[in-house]
Amino acid sequence: MPRILFLTPSGQQLAEIGAEPGSLLLDVAREHDIPLHWRCGQGTCGTCRVQIRHAQQPRMAGMSRKERNVLIRQGLLPESALSGEPLIDAPQQWRLACHLPVEEGDWVVIVPPME
Ligand code: FES
């Protein structure tokens, strides 16, 4: 079972838990009372943004049009990302936890402070 380490941006550990591959990261965080801010749970508000670090980075990232649109609207992706071109999955890339299924490998998840 993959391990997920949740950290604050300053590196303070929030939790380390095991998660089933395929589970949505937001659901995992909610089940374990991780202070990950969210509102819609459907990929429209953009409040559940996180940064992911894992051993396979950098690699190409699959990202839905809906997720791209939200991140572009928030200024976290350039407009050019709408082209549908694959994006680089890198530690500084923002993702939406409600769109992100847990994978087989271990992750470090950086959780921004609540606004
Ligand atoms: S909770 Fe709204 S985009 Fe994820």
TrEMBL record:
Organism: Paludibacterium purpuratum
InterPro entries: 2Fe-2S_ferredoxin-like_sf (IPR036010), 2Fe-2S_ferredoxin-type (IPR001041), 2Fe2S_fd_BS (IPR006058), Beta-grasp_dom_sf (IPR012675)
Entry protein name: Ferredoxin
Domain 2Fe-2S ferredoxin-type: from-to ranges: 2-115
Domain of life: Bacteria
One Gene Ontology MF term: 2 iron, 2 sulfur cluster binding
SUPFAM superfamilies linked to this entry: 2Fe-2S ferredoxin-like
